[in-house]
Amino acid sequence: MNSIPPPRVSVLMPVYNGGIYLKEAIDTILNQSFSNFELVIVNDGSTDNSEEIILRYSDPRIRLENNQNNLGLINSLNIGLGLCEGDYIVRMDQDDISFPDRILLQVKFMDENPEVGLLGSWFEDFGDKIESKIVRYSIDDSDIRIRHLYQTHISHPTAILRKSVIDESKVRFDPEYKHGEDYNFWVSISAFCKISNYPDVLVRKRDHPRNISNSFSSVMYKTCTKVKQRQFAAMGAPINQEEADLYTRFADPEWHFTLKEMSQLHELLERINQANSNTGYISQNIYSSYLASKWFHLCFHNKNLKITGYSWFKKVSFNHYYKPSFFSEFRFKLKSLGLPF
Q1: Which residues span the domain enclosing 136?
Q2: Is 335 left (phi over 0), alpha (psi -120 to 50) or beta?
Q3: Higher pLDDT among residues 254 and 227, named by residue
C-alpha cells in the first residue's frame, strides 16, 4: 500500500485563549487557493473555548496538538516545529488574517529562490482603535540585515521558512529571548541562508491590547537589546546597552543629539565600521555606504551642530562612501557658512 506523501506546506499556529478571533484566523488558512498543506495547531492549555472552536472543524488538514499545561509561546513554537512535515513552514497567529493567495505566492517565491530560507511579506496593521496602515519592509537581504541591527524587519505572522534550513541549522526559538524570540530567531536563521520579504500585502496583522508588544513592552525592550548586542558581538564590535540605544536612535532615525552624544556616536560608528570591515559580517561597501548616508543626514538636520554640521560629516573616516547630490552638498555648505539656503 502506498503511503500518503507529506504536504508541501505546514502552517504552524500556536493558540492560547484565542477564542475571540480564532475562527476567522483558521478560516483564512483553510480557504487558501493553495491547498496542499497541513494546519498544525498547538493549543497551549487554553482555558477558554479555543479547543471547542478547533474541534468543530472536520477538515483533515488540521492537526491538533494539546499541551497538558500552559507551556508558553516559545515551547509551543518549538513543539510545533517538531511536528511540521512540509517542505515549508508558514507561521500564522491566532488573531491575524491571511489573504487567499498568501501561501501560493510565498511558495512560488521560495521555489524560484532556493537561496532564500526565510521570507516575510508586507502587511496591513489594523485594529479597532488604530488607523489601518500598510507596512512595507525591505526585500533586500543586505538591507534587512542592516535593519536587524536595531529592529526586527520580518513580521512573525507573515513568515515562511524552508524546513531543510531549520533541520540542518538546528535553530529553535530560544527561551532566553522571551517576547523577542522571533527577532532572535530571524537573526539566527540568517547565518544559514538569505532572507527577504514578499513585496505585496499578504497578511492583515491585528493590533489589540493583548498583543505581546502592547503587554510586555519593557521586557521586549530588554530582549531586543540583547539581540542587538549579540549581532554587534558577532560583527566584532561588542556594545553595551547605552551604545545600543545610541545606535538605535541614529538608525531609526532621530535628529536631536547633543554634542557629547555626537562625539560618542562618532567613536561608536568608527569602531563598528572597522569591525565590520575586518569580519565581513555585512558587505563592507553596503554597510559603510549606509552609515555614511545616515551620518550625512544626521549632521545636516541636527540643529545642535549649528554651522559645524558639515565639518562633523567630514570627521568620519568613511564619509567618502556617500556622495550626496550636488544640490544637497551645496545647501549643506551654505548652512555651514551661516547663509540662508
Answers
A1: 9-219
A2: alpha
A3: 227
